[in-house]
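user: can you give me the structure for this one chain? tokens are fine.
assistant: on it. calling the predictor now.
[tool input]
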Amino acid sequence: MLPFVVIVAGGILILLAVVQAVLAFRATGSILLALLDLLFIGGPGGMLIYTGYWLPQSEITKHHYPRIIAWVLGGIAVMFGFILLRDLHPGVTVEWANGTQAIALMLGSIGGLIIGIEETKATIRTNQLEAYTQRLETQEQELKRQNEQLERFAGVLSHDLRNPLSVARGRLKLAQADHDSEHLDAIGTAHERIDTLIEDLLTLAQQGEQISDVEPVDIGPLSSDCWATVGTGNAALETEAMRPIMADQERLRQLVENLFRNSVEHGSTGSRTGADDIDGGEPDLTITVGELDDGTGFYVEDDGPGIPEIDRETVFESGYTTGDGGTGFGLAIVKEIAGAHGWRIRATSSESGGARFEITGVEFAP
């Protein structure tokens, strides 16, 4: 209803402007006075028409219209008071014509309309900000609750699971001392897998915290150190020259080690538990670490079979694995560490068709 009334009021003002301009021209013969009447009376009328068409498409909903109407009535009341005081003032001898008073009241209503719209928009933005703040507070409380659950979960993994696992391992050694059985060896392998799962879950639970303290880290020597601690079988490492990056060294080490393990587990035909050095001949897998061409970060790639394009998003999900011996948490840990640094990681294909992981958003050391 309000937009229609505003459009009608604008049309009346434009019509009044035309009539006033014609009367002014006939009375004075001045084109300038006629144009001024068109401008000062018709201009607000055009603005009212525009406002009437704009209101239904704006963020201002119908239940805000009474607020705007109140401001319009307030503008009319202020202008009416001004006219009344002028008429009652003993020093004023020149009387305003009825048309002039009507124009003054109309201008008062336009002023009230503009103020009402702006004040309503400010109120809407304030309400939106309060709602957004409330959502943030709710999310903060939920995040706090989830962190407490993660801490309890980590405690269960550290003590309640590892303690009985240690007992089981001790009993297994006693049994193996008395008996030689492949079934006992299978139990030992299962124990090792349980321990690996616990370690990965603990790491995953602790990697989401944002990193604030960083230092320059030369990723070339760090990659070599990681290579020495990861069972790489008949694989080879190549590191290209790159600038030091700003990172948490220990968590960056975990990121690189997990990427190496992933490449070896899924790209090598040899065993990841084999010797670290290549026993003659060509390696069956080459892993390369280097700086991205656009200078936004670094990459770790291999020349293995690669990751199918359909799986390049899901590989970072917790528990996702295509290998028989994998826990499915390695790349999830990598993503958490990257996110804690404020980096982004994506899986793509290397030039040889192997797996390539690009870490971007990295800050390089001066």
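assistant: here you go. The chain is about 60% helix and 10% strand. The first strand starts at residue 215 and ends at 217.
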